[in-house]
Amino acid sequence: MVKEVTKHDQILDHIAQLPVGHKISVRQIAKDLSVSEGTAYRAIKDAENKGYVSTIERVGTIRIETKRKENIEKLTFAEVVNIVDGQVLGGKEGLHKTLNKFVIGAMELDAMMRYINADNLLIVGNRVKAHELALKEGSAVLITGGFDTDESVKRLADEMKMPIISSGYDTFTVATLINRAIYDQLIKKDIVLVEDILIPFEKTATLSKDDTVEKWYDYHDQTGHGRYPVVDEKGKLIGIVTSKDIMQEQRTQKIEKVMTRHPICANEKMSVAAAARMMVWEGIELLPVINSSNILLGIISRMDVLEALQQLQRQPQVGETIDDIITSQFHNEKEQKADDFVIRCNVTPQMTNVIGTLSHGVFTTIVTEAGNRAVRAIKKGDLIVENITIYFVQPVQIDEVIEIKPKVLEVGRKFGKVDVEVFQQGSLVGKALMMVQLLDR
After folding, report:
1. Where are the beta strands (DSSP E) in 64-161?
2. CB atoms within 10 A of CB 110
3. 262 C-beta neighbours (distance < 10 Å), count
4. β-strand 382-392 against 330-332: which pairing, if any?
5. What pTM was computed for the model?
6. Which of 221, 340, 412, 417 is deepest in the core (most CB within 10 A)?
């Protein structure tokens, strides 16, 4: 079935084909494509979410390079402007470019220039000569303290097509903000999304409401799957047909009569881990993937999800998440046997709330990770926490050491049950009961 292209999709395709650095306006898009300004506005916002464009205060919306997943840690100068609440003084045509690294100009001019190369970002105060020399080397400039620069430097920035930006923050704050943004994107680099693994619409076996059950059998013979999405003439998902739906039905029966309406779906931006939980919870092998307009983008299978999760576990960590910070304080106190599993954990300042006691969110992570490790000591493989009930007995102070003792009560082929007790200096401070779903490799 051919998917009908909507006005929204046409605008996104149009934006994607615009040259990098091109300025985009709602009015111009509406005029060029003969659509309403409301439709144009919504599509431009969607393009911004997808990383096609960036909107900068006092500059407008510009086309930027679409990031590949392997290059997600790179920031464009347009993103830097937004991160540091900056004002673009010149070189607006270079905002779409990607910075390779930033250099803090806290040294003599000659020494500083040895570190500056093309596509760098020089972070410096009101040193006009440094601004000029950096631009001539092909580097962008970020002026801290809210200072301005000479008009000649602004003209040079326009000629070099490299931005010169002014921010009211001091040098340390600016460097911290940029570093934090890069670090956050490094973490995102390892988060696999549904859109990264889906089988696209063009390769997906779909049914229409006017097809017959006979076509379901044809697909089943070809693919071995038992679930097929049903779409209308515009490519919108309207239902799904499973083996259960067609049981005892005549092969001449119309799909519209047997399909399940309003099926469970995944969004393209959903993480694979969340999709895995949904598939396990609902006991389904194949999940349709839709966008915000309910257009079918493709499908994911349970096997695709499991392979992605297992591959992810073999990837090197490039950025610490909150879970990494917490579990880095875990120390195995005893030999890790199924019936004698003990973990010691230091309560660091990052793990506490405003009154200096262990936060409930961190406590949940501690209990969950300890329970997971105990189950894996018995049965290798992947698992998903299905339910957790926590009984928090008393607060735990900062810099204390706690002992976590998970005890596996039951483990089968598909499910596991774990009781977790947490002690401080021999006194019970927390207790939880976990139910986990085990995933076959």
Report:
1. 75-76, 87-90, 98-99, 102-104, 121-124, 140-143
2. 8
3. 9
4. unpaired
5. 0.47
6. 417
Distance CA 127, CA 122 (A): 11
Distance of CA 201 to the CA centre of its chain: 22
CATH number of 194-311: 3.10.580.10
Q: Which residues in the chain are classed under CATH 3.10.129.10? A: 322-439
Count of CB atoms situated within 10 Å of the CB of 279? 22
Instruction: Provide the token pair at 438.
Output: 């085990």
Nearest to residue 127, comparing CAs of 150, 96, 161? 150
Instruction: Give pLDDT, residue 316.
Output: 47
pLDDT tens digits, one per residue of 12-65: 888 888 887 788 888 888 888 888 888 888 888 888 877 788 887 666 788 876
> Which CATH number, 1.10.3720.10, 3.40.1390.20, 3.30.1490.20, 3.90.1640.10, labels domain 67-189?
3.40.1390.20
The position carrying tokens 């779909």 is: 206
Q: List Cβ neighbours of 314 (8 Å cut-off, separation of 6 or more).
A: none
CATH class of the domain whose range is 322-439: alpha beta
Q: Which residues contact 366 (CB under 8 A, 6 or more apart)?
A: 326, 345, 402, 404, 422
> Which pair of tokens denotes residue 326?
């917490």
Average pLDDT for residues 197-226, to the nearest whole number?
87
pLDDT tens digit string along 94-134?
888 888 788 888 888 888 888 888 889 999 999 999 999 99
Residue 52 structure tokens: 């096609």
The single residue listed with the structure tokens 């999800």 is 305
Sign of CA dihedral 55, 58, 63, 66: negative
In order, the DSSP letters of 263-323 are ---EETTSBHHHHHHHHHHHT-SEEEEE-TT-BEEEEEEHHHHHHHHHHHHTSPP-S--HH
Environment class of residue 115 by beta-carbon count within 10 Å: exposed (0-12), middle (13-18) or buried (19+)?
middle
